[in-house]
# Entry
Amino acid sequence: MLEQARTYSVDTATGEAAPAELSTARVKEIFGSIARKYERFNAISSFGAYKRWLRGMMQQAPIEPEHDVLDIAGGTGDVSRAVAEAHQPRHIQCTDLVPAMLEVAEAHKAHGDFGDVPIDFDVVDAQSIPYSDNSYDVITMAYGIRNMPERLKALREMLRVLKPGGSLVCLEFSTPPNRLWRALYHFYLRHLIPFWGGLVTGDSSGFMYLAKSIRAFPDQEGLGRLMEEAGFCNVTWKNYTGGIAAVHVAQKPLD
# Structure
C-alpha cells in the first residue's frame, strides 16, 4: 500500500493513497488565499534562511545564458527572479497551478524585478505539462513536488519536456539526518508554523497543512529514488540548514 501511494496518487497531507482531486483542490484553495502574503510568511517563518537555500539552488543549477528555463510551481516568482539575477538565461517560463500566485509574480515583473531577462507566465498543472517534448534546457522547482498528488506522473512530465542532457533542479523541505535536530524541527513544524501563518495571514489552517505535508514527504533518499523511477539519472542532493531543506539535481539521459 505504501509503495502504491508513493507511486500513484497520494493525499499530500498524509502520504496515504487518495484521489488526486482531493489534494489539488486543497492546494488551489490554500495558496490562492495566502498568495499576497506568501513571501512575507516565508521570510518570517524561515528567519531568512530561504534566501540562503535559493542561493544554494542557483549555485547548483547548470543554467547558461543560451538556455530556456521552465520554472515549475513558480508561485510568486522567487525562483524565477533568482534565476534571472544569477544566470540571465535566454528565456524563463514561470508556471504555477494557482493563478493568484502568478499575479504576484507578474507584479514583480511590472516592477522590473527580472531585469532584462524575458519571462512569461502560465497557469500549469505540472502533472500534465502543456509543452512539447524536449523543449527546455533546465527545469527549476521549489516547494512544488510535495504539493503534487501524482508525483511520479509530474516527474515524468518534467523529464519529457526537458532536452536530452537537461537538468531538473529541485529545492524542497526534507528530513534532517540528526535525530535531535529532526525532533526540534518537527516540533517547530507542528506548533510554530501554524502560529506564524496565523500571525501573518490571519488564518492558520493552511499552515497546518503545510506542516503536515512536510512531515509526510519522502526524505532525501526517497525523493532521489522517485526521480530515478521517473527516468532521471545522475541524481544528487545537498542539504541546507542541517537537512531542513535539500536541493536535488537530476539529469535527463542523453539517449
